[in-house]
Amino acid sequence: MAEVLVLGAGMVGIGTALALQARGHAVTLVDRREPGRETSYGNAGLIQREAVEPYAIPRELPTLWRYLTGQSNDVTYHLRDVFRFAPALWSYFRASATPRHRAIARTYAQLIARSTDDHAPLIAAADAEGLIRRAGFYQVYREARAFDGATREAERLRQTYGVASRLLDGAALMVEEPALRKSLAGAVHWTDSWSTNDPAALVEAYVRLFQARGGRLVTGDAAGLERQGNVWRVPGDGGAFEAAAAVVALGPWSPDLLARFGYRVPMVWKRGYHRHFEHPTPLNRPLMDVANGVVLSSMQQGLRMTTGAEIVARGGSINPRQLERGRAAAREILELGEPVEAQPWFGHRPCMPDMLPVVGAAPLHPGLWFNFGHGHQGLTLGPTTGELLAELFDGEDSALAQALSPARRLPAAA
Ligand SMILES: Cc1cc2nc3c(=O)[nH]c(=O)nc-3n(C[C@H](O)[C@H](O)[C@H](O)COP(=O)(O)OP(=O)(O)OC[C@H]3O[C@@H](n4cnc5c(N)ncnc54)[C@H](O)[C@@H]3O)c2cc1C
Q: Which helix (H) or strand (E) segment is 165 a member of?
């Protein structure tokens, strides 16, 4: 059995650490902060059993025009950063063409199909049932035409992948969600998806489980990773931590570290914001307001509104536009009180142009492993790709793992 450093204690890092540990490896989980305080902290909390097709760039001209002219609230951008990401965005655009996207979705759907099953034993063992709702979530539509389209799409996903859903008209939705004060055109209820009312607390619960099973959590800086002989070493509190293997699970920061080792990772960061609001009547289920590009979910801290994507570099300043538009739209349908925090939170979805996470051995460095690039569904997929990585680590290859392999996906490694 090997000693392994897992770098990054978000949902992907802890999923990896638990899976390696379950196979008998001695795992040290390294983060520069408390576990689960970055991207895995601020998401919408959905464990998305319905998300069998990863989020593609729309290719229809009217939709692209709405994006370009700032009419859409789901995607906004900073022109300078669009140029900076141009090669990766171009690859992403090409991968979004229907035939390729369908092929990618065949892989993605296999990951998503396992997601709730892979979370389930961890939730039970971590005593985290109180953080989980197994009630699905609603995608709500304000206009009949959009709802009709969504109805057809839900049927396509049912026939193609077996994704379960039910349809509600506006009146039925108001009965199920007394917090709504206005009838909408309708909703698709994705019944097999789960959600958490505190994503960071879920990561923390998994970390406590990892520690109770003998795992070690340490504070260290992955940016100082180096190899000396056959040993990987990171500097940390009280000295260096060493092991024969290291897994990079640094989410949006993974490309920064890997550039130092000669890997060019074409990641696009899609920033998302959240803010909590006081609300008198909690929602029974999270609600995605499709027309306004926001998810509303009752969390422990208040009603969390999360936004869609802003294409902007990590250091770019806060732009509250998507949250403000989402807030105005939410006020039309719900009673929304004052913000809970003085400032919105933001984080960056780590998105690969081919929409798949990168999982497997580093092509050029023995003992170095990758598990990052989970884009819109890292909370959902952390335990699943953690298990896949652990299988590969123990020499168990599979067609699914091959499709996520860094050797095939990062050809520019120098
Ligand atoms: C607004 C928003 C909504 C979202 N909604 C959902 C959702 O509903 N469902 C879903 O499945 N996904 C959702 N996502 C995506 C999901 O949050 C991410 O895919 C996921 O959190 C990525 O997890 P990670 O572990 O890879 O990264 P992170 O959670 O960011 O973890 C990386 C860790 O690396 C650490 N780190 C970085 N640099 C260093 C260093 N030098 N040394 C040591 N440690 C370091 C960080 O401190 C951090 O803890 C959403 C994302 C956003 C932004």
A: strand 165-169
For atom 40 of ligand 1, which residue has the closest CA?
A: 222
**Residue the block writes with tokens 């899976």:** 19
Give 171 Cα–ligand 1 centroid separation in angstroms.
37
Tell me how far apart the alpha carbons of residues 271 and 268 are, in angstroms, rounded to a whole number: 9
Radius of gyration of the CA atoms of the chain, in A:
21
Instruction: Name the residue at shortest CA distance from atom 19 of ligand 1.
Output: 378
Ligand 1 center to 174 CA (angstroms): 34
* Ligand 1 atom closest to the CA of 9, numbered from 1: 49
Q: Is residue 174 part of a domain?
A: no
* Residue 413 forms part of a structural domain: yes
Output the residue whose Cα is nearest ligand 1's atom 15. 376
Domain span at 40: 1-50+197-264+353-414
Split into its structural domains, the chain has a count of 1
CA distance 242 to 334: 52
Tell which one of 18, 28, 40 to mutate to probe ligand 1, the residue whose CB is within 8 A of the most ligand atoms.
40
The answer to whether residue 33 is domain-embedded is yes
Q: How far apart are CA 36 and CA 200, in angstroms?
A: 5
Q: What is the CATH number of the domain that holds 38?
A: 3.50.50.60
CA of 201 to the centre of ligand 1 (A): 14
Task: Specify if 304 maps to a domain.
Answer: no
Cα–Cα dist 322/127, whole Å: 36
Digit-by-digit pLDDT tens for the chain (414 residues) are 889 999 999 999 999 999 999 999 999 999 999 999 999 999 999 999 999 999 999 888 888 888 888 888 888 888 888 888 899 999 999 999 999 999 999 999 999 999 999 999 999 999 999 999 999 999 999 999 999 999 999 999 999 999 999 999 999 999 999 999 999 999 999 999 999 999 999 999 999 999 999 999 999 999 999 999 999 999 999 899 999 999 999 999 999 999 999 999 999 999 999 999 999 899 999 999 999 999 999 999 999 999 999 988 888 888 889 999 999 999 999 999 999 999 999 999 999 999 999 999 999 999 999 999 999 999 999 999 999 999 999 999 999 999 999 998 885 544
Residues 81 and 309: beta-carbon distance below 8 Å: no
